[in-house]
Write a structure and sequence with these properties.
mainly alpha; two-stranded antiparallel sheet
Length: 570
């Protein structure tokens, strides 16, 4: 069967999910089971995979989803604990002394704070932490989720202390070593480690314009679609502070990527940028003279809010000191850093404790595990939530109420994630190199899609390369997994078209990051935290536009780098 036909079959579950959630406004709890069924049908009828094998992949996906749900629960319990302890209102009170302007607040929390969390943890953690914090400050839930999902893009290439590059590119090791041994023209790397460093460096060049453009665009987007006056210009009015915040992040981000390595650009950029932006905002540096707000909650569109709503009173009380109120977030940041840096030893210790599921339903190639101590939902989220009971001196009845409500919120994301991650598992397992399971030797569903696209793109591939990375994140919910899926494919396309491998693979790494805006996993998880379960299609309808803008600009940069920086290769 031709790659084109395989690609069409593989596309059906994705199109179904989009049509049902965006077009027909189905919640993910209904749309994803239908998409999963279509993937099962394609896997059995077209790929000729054994039904039992497809069932095993489904079970594998459900087990993987449990890990994601632990993260979601941890983020929810942090939110409810702080709400019932009075810590969240104290933080709200403190932000009044930094800035009451929503444009400034979203840049500090949704952009810089989230970038630091991404650099430390990854796993979709930033949106799950930053969105409820914005919600508590008085942001409409829909706005909070959209802004955090979109801003969680350029930091993702270096998320979880460089995991998307260091681990995501591991299947290229043999190809890189062979290229180095052959002394192929145009190579400026001598080892896999050097290649990873160069990928990180070129990725920052592709991200850099969007580090400045995206925040300004999204401020205009926020005021246009969530403001009383429906005006783009009100958001653009904060352009000075936006450029200031972007520079505060970009300088340490770029410096770290070019002179230190791919492990810490987002973590250091986010941490330094956050400190500079907070100090600048408190001093009024580049802050707009006129404060902008959403208006009273009573005037908000009904689809902006979910089951968890902000008070939006504009006035808050301090129930404790700011230090005590912020202590849970400080602990989260510190614990994430010390448990994610390998040299400190805790990462290996926590990651080594897991519940293994080997040879699921008797298939040796289908395995899964839940590293429950390494998941951010356990350590630090749930751990810090328990510690907060004592730090904030919470009465027992309020602590119990917080945990009870957090568990109650897990029903819808559980259904949606079970089916969406099971679909991902079928996608990835469909190309197994085992004649008994894959009798036709077909490519996996994602690779069939990518192969079909590459056949159409030809010499315009640099324009398309980042969108393939974005497709990988959309399907799998992970930049790291997108790179694992498509890095070898991107290398092969670069070889066949005689293009520089390092530029095309860097575009893949950037695409996997921008794909976080639209990936179903992140949308479902972030929606659940702010009470928007069932609104996933409305979120995706809004995040797809900045995704397309991002990909278009990265495509132009990748094309220029391919044909201008390395013209001798053509």
């Amino acid at each position: 069967m031709s790659v084109g036909i395989l690609a069409i079959v593989a596309l059906i579950p994705i199109v179904l999910a989009l049509v049902l959630m965006v077009g027909m406004r189905w919640p993910a709890t209904k749309a994803m089971p239908v998409a999963w069924l279509s993937a099962v049908a394609g896997a059995i009828a077209v790929w000729n995979l054994p039904a039992a094998y497809v069932a095993a992949l489904t079970v594998q996906g459900i087990i993987t989803a449990v890990g994601i749900l632990i993260i979601v629960f941890g983020a929810i319990i942090i939110l409810y604990t702080l709400q019932y302890s009075g810590g969240m209102e104290t933080i709200q009170y403190g932000f009044q002394n930094i800035s009451r302007d929503r444009r400034v607040q979203v840049l500090i929390i949704g952009y810089l704070f989230a970038a630091f969390i991404e650099g430390a943890a990854g796993f979709g953690t930033p949106a799950a932490l930053a969105a409820p914090l914005l919600l508590s400050l008085g942001f409409p839930p829909l706005c909070a989720v959209v802004m955090c999902l979109v801003f969680n893009s350029f930091p993702v290439t270096f998320g979880a202390v460089g995991t998307p590059i260091i681990l995501g590119m591991k299947f290229l090791t043999g190809l890189v070593d062979a290229a180095v041994a052959s002394a192929a023209p145009g190579l400026n790397f001598h080892s896999m480690e050097a290649f990873n460093a160069i990928i990180g460096q070129w990725s920052t060049i592709m991200h850099l314009p969007m580090i400045y453009i995206l925040p300004i665009f999204m401020l205009g987007f926020m005021t246009r679609f969530f403001g009383q006056n429906k005006s783009w210009s009100e958001g653009f009015g904060a352009w000075k502070f936006s450029l200031f915040a972007s520079t505060a992040f970009a300088v340490p981000y770029m410096f770290t990527a070019w002179f230190v390595g791919p492990e810490f650009p987002s973590l250091i950029g986010g941490l330094i940028g956050l400190g500079i932006a907070v100090v600048g905002a408190k001093k009024g540096f580049c802050v707009p003279e006129k404060t902008w707000d959403f208006g009273p909650a009573s005037s908000w569109d009904s689809e902006w809010t979910g089951s968890v709503s902000a008070e939006n009173t504009g006035e808050f009380k301090a129930h404790m000191s700011q230090v005590r109120a912020w202590t849970p977030y400080v602990l989260i940041g510190l614990i994430l850093v010390v448990t994610r840096i390998p040299d400190l030893g805790l990462k290996g210790m926590l990651a080594g404790v897991s519940i293994p599921f080997k040879s699921i339903l008797g298939f040796k190639s289908v395995n899964a595990s839940i590293a429950y101590l390494y998941l951010p939902g356990t350590i630090p989220f749930s751990l810090v939530a328990l510690l907060t009971i004592f730090i904030h001196k919470m009465p027992g009845d309020k602590a119990a109420k917080a945990w009870k409500e957090a568990f109650a919120k897990m029903k819808n994301p559980t259904i949606a994630l079970f089916f969406s991650v099971a679909l991902v598992s079928i996608f990835r397992g469909s190309g197994i190199a085992d004649a008994a399971l894959n009798p036709n030797g077909y490519l996996s569903m994602p690779l069939a899609l990518a192969e079909a696209v590459s056949g159409l793109a030809g010499q315009t591939w640099p324009v398309v390369a980042s969108f393939v990375g974005g497709l990988g994140s959309f399907i799998t919910g992970s930049n790291t997994v997108s790179d694992l899926l498509f890095a070898e494919f991107q290398w092969g396309v670069a070889s066949s078209l005689n293009m520089p491998h390092q530029i095309i693979v860097a575009a893949q790494a950037v695409g996997g990051a921008m794909g976080n805006m639209i990936c179903i996993h992140n949308i479902v998880a972030a929606s659940a935290v702010v009470g928007l379960s069932g609104m996933e299609g409305q979120i995706l309808k809004r995040t797809v536009w900045p995704f397309l803008l991002y990909g278009a600009i990265v495509g132009v940069i990748a094309t220029a780098m391919t044909f201008v920086i390395y013209p001798g290769l053509f």
